[in-house]
């Protein structure tokens, strides 16, 4: 059986959709198949409706994220890195996000990132189309989302453009959510939800598996981090990633060194990586594990601008230190190690002890108390609080 009822059963069995959930009727009442193309990818496999309709339908009504676009729809050739740029999100994650949003009847919602339109359809089913606005930066995706929604019987406001840079049609809103990861919360969202709530996947290239859940009052948003979402990054500031050969260069010019911090102590601890990411931005990492049973690993670090890289070698056993190599204007491992040591000095706190405050001047991450700021970023272009249009 591959129907909405099957998806309801799966989500119920996983504990994500209890009988009293206000989203149960939406999951049951919105056919996911109306929001998906005839071909998509999931888990490294391609599903083709014409070639195997039953297999395609099983994937549609599984609890899986389904990739519907790569490389912004541009064919870069078979040898190019296939970066996912649009998808139908995993239903359990959608429910997590909507639960954090705490939508109430009669409220209005703005969604940044229309994607296939499936998430907007759930919102329309519960709130009514007139209370939902969704937006996508990609004209083709926005048009397809609008068509998908119409086919399912919903008519929300569908916009095309950058949701991060200005007040939008229909503002103010009671709730704002993003279906892609942002490295910082746009002030436009704070301004257009003056007494509302914002839920957005948040983080940089090293760690971006947090929902920022912020309540807005008096031109300021504040809240904490939770969850474990995995979303694509905003197109305005991609989060890194790619093939090593596209980032690795000047291999003979790397500067050797040693460290007493095991690279896996950093990458295998999500709390450590969260705090390291606060300090080491515009970089991403990859852990390559040996396939010979040795248990050895290499941590690769790359700057987004491709100018700097670093490696840290892990070998199991009682080691006092580990080999490091770095190249470029940034010493990426040194940045990571310094941030990791800072986290240790904080007492190795969990991510749940951190909070985020956002206003027109920038954003600040605090530990335990809003007065204890441990990381801050000013906005690139100074903005007077009353100037946003």
TrEMBL record:
Family annotation (CDD domains): AdoMet_MTases (cd02440)
Molecular function via GO: protein-L-isoaspartate (D-aspartate) O-methyltransferase activity
Class in the EC hierarchy, top level: transferase
Keywords: Cytoplasm, Methyltransferase, S-adenosyl-L-methionine, Transferase
InterPro entries: PCMT, SAM-dependent_MTases_sf
Cellular component, GO annotation: cytoplasm
Record's subcellular location: Cytoplasm
One Pfam family linked to the record: PCMT
One example of a Gene Ontology biological process annotation: methylation
Keyword Transcription regulation: no
Chief localisation class: cytoplasm
EC number: 2.1.1.77
UniProt keyword Membrane present: no
Family: Belongs to the methyltransferase superfamily. L-isoaspartyl/D-aspartyl protein methyltransferase family.
Protein name (Swiss-Prot/TrEMBL): Protein-L-isoaspartate O-methyltransferase
Organism: Streptomyces klenkii
Organism taxonomic ancestry: Bacteria, Bacillati, Actinomycetota, Actinomycetes, Kitasatosporales
């Amino acid at each position: 059986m591959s129907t909405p009822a099957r998806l309801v059963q799966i989500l119920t069995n996983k504990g994500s959709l209890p009988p009293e959930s206000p989203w149960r009727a939406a999951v049951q009442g919105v056919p996911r198949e109306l929001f998906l193309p005839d071909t998509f990818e999931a888990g490294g496999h391609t599903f083709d409706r014409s070639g195997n309709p039953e297999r395609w339908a099983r994937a549609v009504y599984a609890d899986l994220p389904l990739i519907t676009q790569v490389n912004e729809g541009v064919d870069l050739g078979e040898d190019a890195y296939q970066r996912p740029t649009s998808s139908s999100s995993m239903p359990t994650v959608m429910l997590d996000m909507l639960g954090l949003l705490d939508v109430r009847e009669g409220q209005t919602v703005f969604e940044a990132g229309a994607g296939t339109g499936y998430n907007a359809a759930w919102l329309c089913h519960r709130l009514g189309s007139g209370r939902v606005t969704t937006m996508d930066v990609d004209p083709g995706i926005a048009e397809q989302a609008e068509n998908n929604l119409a086919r399912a019987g919903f008519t929300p406001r569908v916009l095309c453009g950058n949701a991060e840079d200005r007040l939008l049609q229909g503002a103010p809103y009671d709730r704002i959510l993003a279906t892609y990861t942002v490295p910082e919360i746009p002030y436009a969202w704070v301004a257009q939800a003056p007494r509302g709530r914002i839920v957005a996947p948040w983080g940089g290239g090293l760690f971006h598996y947090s929902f920022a859940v912020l309540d807005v009052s008096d031109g300021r948003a504040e809240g904490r981090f939770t969850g474990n979402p995995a979303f694509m990054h905003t197109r305005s500031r991609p989060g890194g990633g790619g093939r090593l050969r596209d980032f690795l260069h000047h291999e003979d010019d790397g500067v050797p060194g040693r460290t007493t911090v095991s690279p896996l102590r950093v990458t295998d601890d999500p709390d450590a990586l969260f705090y390291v990411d606060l300090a080491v931005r515009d970089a991403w990492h990859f852990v390559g594990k040996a396939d010979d049973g040795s248990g050895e690993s290499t941590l690769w670090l790359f700057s987004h601008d491709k100018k700097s890289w670093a490696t840290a070698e892990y070998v199991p056993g009682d080691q006092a230190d580990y080999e490091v190599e770095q190249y470029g204007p940034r010493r990426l491992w040194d940045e990571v190690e310094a941030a990791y040591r800072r986290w240790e000095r904080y007492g190795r706190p969990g991510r749940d002890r951190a909070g985020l405050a956002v206003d027109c001047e920038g954003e600040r991450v605090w530990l335990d108390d809003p007065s204890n700021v441990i990381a801050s970023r000013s906005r690139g272009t100074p903005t007077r609080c009353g100037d946003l249009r």
